[in-house]
Amino acid sequence: MKIRTVTEDFIKDLLMKGQREDGRQPMSYRNIELKTGVIPNAEGSAQVIMGNTKMLAGVKVGVGEPMPDKPGEGNLITSAELHPMASDQFESGPPSPEAIELGRVIDRGIRAADMINSKSLGIDEEKVWEVFIDIYTLNYDGNLFDAGTLAAAAALYSARMPKYDAENEEVIREGNLGRFKIGGMVTSSTFGKIAGKVILDPDGNEEAFMDARITIANDENYLRAMQKGLGGSFSQKELETLIDASFQKSKDLRKLIISKVE
Amino acid sequence: MQRIVVPGEKLSEKQLRIENTITDANGTYSCILGSFDEQTLSLIPLEGLWQPRNGDTIIGIVEEDRGTTVTVNLNAPYKGLIISKFLESEIKAGDIIVSTIKELEKGGTAILIRPKVLGAGKLMSVTPSKIPRIIGKANTMVKQITDGTGTSVVIGLNGLVWLSGGDVDLATAAILKIEEEAHTSGLTERVKELLDNKKMV
Amino acid sequence: MGGGEKPQLIINGKRLDGRMPDELRPIKIEVGTIRNAVGSSYIEWGNNKIIAAVYGPKEALPKHVQDPERAIIKCRYTMAPFSSLEEHGRSGPNRRSTEISKVTKEVFENVIMLEKYPGAEIDIFVEVLQGDGGTRAAGITAASVALAASGIPMTDMPYGVSFGKVGDQVILDLNKIEDNYSDADMPIAISPRTGDILLLQMDGTLTPEDVDLGMHMVRKAGEYITKLQREALKQSYEKISEKYKK
Predict the structure, then answer these.
(1) What is the ipTM of this complex?
(2) What CATH number was assigned to the domain covering residues B57-118?
């Protein structure tokens, strides 16, 4: 029974004037805060606060077996949770299609950018590292795709890589440990379309009235994952403009991650 | 002298009859997070829910037209209900309305009368216990906001406030300030300051 | 900690983390962590990091769970899959967390004035972001604060804390490694106003004298925990009052 704080007309009227309810330009992000190492028990972790959206990603590393067709390659398992404490729009129970979509889109970007090279995750012939990324929504106010990708990328980038003690078959998680080999650093930019106007980083009120959404994930050089969502559509010209915008925006996001880790 | 008290905190060694308290053999205790005035022995909630009364003005969102009745979301554990034959004009799901409670039914339903649809504007949700402060003594506070911003302000006792026209951002800022500082004195002056300063910019 | 030899948990009267037998871990409580929630809090209790959030009262759904006389409480305690120093955990509820959710809910049925909201439900979420032993007690302590912050009327603010036994020594507030190798563990929740016990579980081997000693430690620690809960709630308001004091 979420009470919308703004009506559709109010948001649309503002957009026609090129304005947004929080005073932002159509193509700007909200203020972003990023903190790494927030969960010391996890091998890597990061909290992202984007406006009132708050997300937490944790990386755990374990030992598993390689896929039969990919000997010597490790596994990456990414999932997202829309925790019911984050909004009264989220319900307890099995993951919703929205949560699964969110987890899969973030996963694709990280995987395609080879952010963690799976070939570097082999231990021996029978064992490989399994890297779990869990992305938690703590408070929902729109744009979970970008906040989630940012949290996941920062958690991975800052994660310590455990060592395997083959003799005792033990994982050493503390002490003097290195980091994972990082390939492309992926971030994403999500755009919403309301009454024909396109905006970056829609907040919860804007998402409630959005006709279409597109998430564009890229690293420095290439597009790595995209997902168009909701019932509306984008023109090819819009797509081209937004791809350019995503490459532009990702520079700052990458800088932010690097600044919080080194 | 006012002090902030929490549930379970002792207010007095005596057994007093004060709203939102509980007494036992040892004294009187608060049941809420509130502001307690030791002289007047009044305990005002700082957070919390709206307790509906007959005649309350509310703002709600129309949920569903069930034919003979229309249900209204009041952002509360109570549902609003309009009997369709009392409707003077058409309303549809998603409309934001201001209305009055005619009577309360057992089980948490409020029968609403004289619904009026509000047009384009901004709906804010504030802590219901702060609403009296936003209205002010004899409407002084809300009038001050309207005069200072040109925004028309409709207030629902259920904690919803409707803003339209004028400087909506400034009106929002003023209301948020009142909500945050509701338990302090000299607030009218400080809100006036806020409105005056912003206007000059 | 996989199997192996039992480490010596108390050396020269002090515990592995330097605490005395009746000493709590450091505790920090914040209010208002989850903006969308009606009330919320965040607690750091030693290495535990836990969020509690409250939604409601709202219409209880599905309808058949409604009680026409009073509100019902739904409680969901879960541990994040990255919360442990060891293996990745499974996300969502399991048998352990379902039991903890149930006993936590029963704690608050004692103190929330449920009769004020017939037909409604109150949701309490306790999410352990990092766990290091004693999470149910810390979660109850945090949930109390979140409930008070929500404005829901309560006759008291319960706190939780556990005690246990290592060898022949009764100790307060076991952390994970102590819990793993202890001879007994007994989590408790108490209503400080009445002194009544609202949650009690026990596992292991204790004498009646151990329980007396442990309960004495619990109540003494409880005075301090209650003080922290109250300060966390009052702080933000008092800061504003202070600012405008004449």
Answers:
(1) 0.90
(2) 2.40.50.140
